[in-house]
Amino acid sequence: MNPVEIKKDIYWVGGIDWDLRNFHGYSTERGSTYNAYLIVDDHITLVDTVKHYLFDEMLERICKVIDPAKIKYIISNHVEMDHSGSIPFLLERCPGATVITSPNGEKGLKMHYGPNMPLKVVNNGDELKIGKRSLKFVLMPMVHWPDSMATYIPEEKILLPNDAFGQHIASSERFDDEFPWEILKHEAAKYYANIVLPYGRQVNKALEAVKAIPVDIIGPSHGLILRSKISDMIKLYGDWANNVTARKAIVVYDTMWNSTKKIALAIHEAFLDSGINARLLNLETNHISDIMTEMLYAEYIAVGSPTLNNGLLPAVSAFLTYMKGLAPKNRKALAFGSYGWGGQSVDEIDKVLNDCGFQMLDKIKLQYVPLEGVLNDMKNKLKEVLK
Q1: Is 275 left (phi over 0), alpha (psi -120 to 50) or beta?
Q2: Are 113 and 123 spatial neighbours (Cβ–Cβ below 8 Å)?
Q3: N or C, which end of the chain is more exposed by having fewer CB within 10 Å?
Q4: CATH number of the domain residue 203 falls in
């Protein structure tokens, strides 16, 4: 339960959620952290808080550094309750504190916690002097809420950007160079793919602001603190924000009597035979959030379902709804499936993929159980398209 000093008189005092396995509908097999940062200066400041049920854990860490009653400012970089949920409890311990937030943060905090919270609004570029240090605020609307902002400590070259650059990882390690980079990178990709992906334009604006300032440490509000892999993470964010993909395909499907699975296997082989790395992803055994992580890098997406009651199997319908909301761009797409008599499923998939703005390949619709010769013909036609 000890705090961790990240620079002289600046401490990580957050909470570790070892048991979290679902966050807004995406799987978090490694749990998460809710990071909060205590700055000890003339005016003691806490940047962000934790989810309500981890308040006592955060408070214990704060108490090992200072008396919480001495906190002068609480910075709310983001209203979402995994970061703001402990503010009301903390204000009971430091009744003289003021909550600093963005203009949209003011609206959100009042709507979450009532009109009586002591608030001070800051705008982009505003500065708050807390002693030998100053805090500068960078508004980052829609990364990933309208109220989102970052707090920058120029004297320490520390950027605290809340959800940007985060990863859902529960760990005893606090810094990126204490933890396996490949796991951290994967969890950062999963976080981006399932939360930040719709906001690439806004992310690019935020990256411009980050690149314009010297940064030694980035302290996100989830996961590991970055100090050794900052340039690597910024490059990854730039690639993701600009929908940079690899020569890769994902084949996503559900099946009823294995006919759609046979088509999926043939499509998968066509991609591989064309020199395109491909993943076969059955929705019965792969979580939609993991599929979105694979899609982050994929140039091609093929989605398949048999027809059920004039429509799709529920798992495919749910995936398409989830994917469309995350708004990936610049992909090539293929709808496929089997049918008995109606065959509406493939048309429905094709419409959703087309509505996403993808470059569409000719859909594949095969009746009943596709014979080997039919599958081979289909595979060869697809390989011609993929040349």
Answers
A1: left
A2: no
A3: C
A4: 3.60.15.10
CA dist., res. 105 & res. 203, Å (int): 19
pLDDT 10s digits, 236-286: 999 999 999 999 999 999 999 999 999 999 999 999 999 999 999 999 999
pLDDT < 70: residue spans in the chain = none
Q: Which residues are catalytic?
A: 24, 78, 80, 82, 144, 163, 191, 222
Q: What is the pLDDT of residues 31-70, one digit of tens each?
A: 999 999 999 999 999 999 999 999 999 999 999 999 999 9
Closest C-alpha among 188, 158, 160 to residue 77? 160
pLDDT of residue 25: 86
Rounded Cα distance between 68 and 312, Å, is 55
Please check whether residue 103 is in contact with residue 121, taking contact to mean a CB–CB distance below 8 angstroms.
Answer: yes
**241, 265, 298 - which closes a domain:** 241
Contacting residues for 327 by C-beta, under 8 A, at least 6 apart: 197, 198, 356
Distance CA(263)–CA(369), nearest Å, equals 10
Q: Based on the domain organization, do 225 and 259 belong to the same domain?
A: no
Report which residue type is found at 32.
Answer: S
Contact 212, 159 (CB under 8 A): no
Residues 123 and 269 in one domain: no
Count of C-beta atoms within a 10 Å radius of residue 1: 12
What predicted TM-score, i.e. pTM, was given to this entire model? 0.95
216 and 82 within one domain: yes
Integer Cα distance of 161 and 333 in angstroms? 34
Q: Are residues 316 and 236 in the same domain?
A: no
Q: Which residues contact 213 (CB under 8 A, 6 or more apart)?
A: 152, 154, 157, 159
Residues 6+ apart with CB under 8 A from 367: 338, 339, 340, 343
- How confident is the model at residue 342, as a pLDDT? 85
